[in-house]
Amino acid sequence: MVADSTAEDAVPAEVIRHAREGDGEAFAELYRRFSRRVFGLCLHLLGKREDAEDATSEVFMKLRTALGRYDDALPFRPWLTGVAAKHCLDRLRRRRREKSLFETERDDPPAIVETRCSPLAGLLAEEGRGALAAAIAALPERQRVPLVLRYHGELSYDEIAERLAWTRQRVAVSLFRAKQSLRRVLKAGETGT
Amino acid sequence: MTCPSGEIWTAYADDECARAELQELEAHLAGCPDCRGLVLALREENRLLVRVLHEIPDAGKQRSALPGLALAVGTLVAVAAGLQVASNGLAGLGRESPVDLADERTLILGALFEIVLYVLREGASMLESMVAAVVLPILIVLGGLVALSLRRRWAGGALALCALLAAAAPSVALEVRGSRSERDRVVVGAGEIVDDSLAVAGHVVAVDGTVTGNLFAAGGRVILRGTVKGDLVAVGERVEIEGTVEGNVFTIGGTVLVRGSIGRSAHCAAADTIRVDPAGRVDGDTVGFAGTIDLDGHVGRDLVAFAGTTNVRGDVGRNASVRTRRLHLEPAAKVGGNLVARVRDAHAVQVDEGAIVSGETETRLLPKERSRYARVGFYGWRLIWLAAAFLVGLALHALVPGLFPARVPEGVALLRTAGLGFVALVVVPAAALLLMLTLIGLPAGLLMLGVWIAGLYVAQILVATLVGRGFLQKADAPPASIASALLVGLVFVAIVVNLPYVGGPVRFVVLVLGLGLAVVGAQRGGTARP
Known about the structure:
The complex is a heterodimer of chains A (193) and B (530).
Chain A lengths: L4 H5 L3 H8 L3 H23 L2 H18 L9 H21 L29 H13 L2 H11 L5 H8 L3 H25 L1
Helix pairs in contact in A: 2-3, 3-4, 3-5, 4-5, 6-9, 7-9, 8-9
Chain B lengths: L5 H8 L5 H13 L1 H22 L12 H27 L10 H26 L2 H17 L5 H15 L5 E5 L6 E4 L4 E2 L2 E11 L2 E2 L3 E10 L2 E2 L3 E10 L2 E2 L3 E10 L2 E2 L3 E11 L4 E2 L3 E10 L2 E2 L3 E10 L2 E2 L3 E10 L4 E2 L3 E5 L5 E3 L4 E2 L3 E5 L5 H4 L1 H24 L11 H27 L4 H31 L9 H16 L5 H21 L7
Parallel strand pairs in B: 1-4, 2-4, 3-5, 4-6, 5-7, 6-8, 7-9, 8-10, 9-11, 10-12, 11-13, 12-14, 13-15, 14-16, 15-17, 16-18, 17-19, 18-20, 18-21, 19-22, 20-23
């Protein structure tokens, strides 16, 4: 889907095997291939660059032990995304000092949901993409997190639901609302200027 | 026919519909151009989201400003500027350069750089984790080395200047990245373009992408495989340039490797080796200070080398000026201009058959070590120093007589004074540097350093006075006048301190004792008559 993902995806099995056996070079190779992606995920989930930098290095430190649990039969990148996502969600939970995330969801007004949707035009200009990135960053966590997990982490609805301890239905609704908010914000920005 | 809701189509566009619904939805799509259009637009929107989420937003708005890092970067800039000035100066001095950096002192300098590097590397985390216990001894060693090498008064001024530059250096258009954890790497990925100057510090700094401004890098290992459009300033145990630097390069490190290309000049100092691989090329001048310099690649203009061993297998476009203990031009070597080798004996130069020097080859034997004492200028400077110290001493005595000790302390008091002096010698600069690392404490730190440098000067005067009084003391006479005591003492100190071999240790003792006396004197309030 993304230009650079194909090169990353093809991790030779022996690189992972060597990394698992503690080979520094192989580990550096994994870092080289994936650190940017992991950093991006952390950045979008956590929102702050410093936090994302810390989280990225923590994820790779954890990876040394976590690799022992990796099943070679599964594709590596989604697995790593899962590890990174879990780490970030833990961080978010710690940040809120709450047992589970997004408690406030219940307090949401029961959907003044517009059912009509007008998706964003595909070829946004550069400033438009910047505005979209800013709008994503400004989304409330309960909308931003599933959105990032879905479109950056490329997790399925079920995987997201599992990680957030939500129902699949709630994931679908949150994603839909997240997109509606983005459309609203960008549209307001367009007409506002 | 009612169309399914946007929510349902959203899930459909995400390929997340229940299998049961799928058939129904597809049947609807076949007959409903509106919904087909919506699904296409939703998929397009998904692609847009993926794309935007994979673009890492510009760091410009969220820069981390670690004070330690900023200072490290500033210091790097100052060091680089100093290095450039020094190398230009040395190159300009040309024929009669009085500076001898070819031997042990190069190694000492290299070691010093290593220590500076360590401090720089630790700088950021130091503030947070309070590992002063580790850094302090290093700073102490550093302070001691600075003190010992402080042979000329301008060194103090240069230090202050560097510190000032360091304070002023971190500029606005600068992105700062760093890692606080010990094992981390700081990376600019292969596709990444940093449209700015970039300062990075980390255990491993790997730059595979493009930096359009200057790159300042400090780390255990600094690897550049990408492109730097401006200058590269790098400090690292190992600095590897495999990519392209379009501007100048200033590096300090244990080992410096050039495998890529440098558009302008390279100024390198390495404790161990500077190596330009066969694939490496420097289009401008190359100035190197190192234990070993291996030139296998290409230098477009002049080569100026100060090294223990210099091996040339590559080619130098213009002149080569080499001050070394041993120079070897191997068969493939080529020098486009003149070759001037400054060595201690004629056998130290080996030019193999096949090596080409287009201009003249000149071997100059360095004067013997004693030569320092054979120059008139040397005595001239000592005389000026003597006169200045004499006048300063008289003035000091008139202003703060209490500072001057009446007699040499004995026994425990002597030990205590020396101990105080030693502490002042090493702790004050260390504390000043620590203070300066906090940036807020910079003015106080600078002031402290200034006082310390003044203290070093006064220390010699105090010791000289004591020595003079000792010489002129007669059993049944009143103490000699301050002027005569000062004069005799200063002459004695000036002579002993400049003797070969014993001069260095004596100077150290004088500094330690004198600083101790100064501290004791200052404690007495400096006003009471001795």
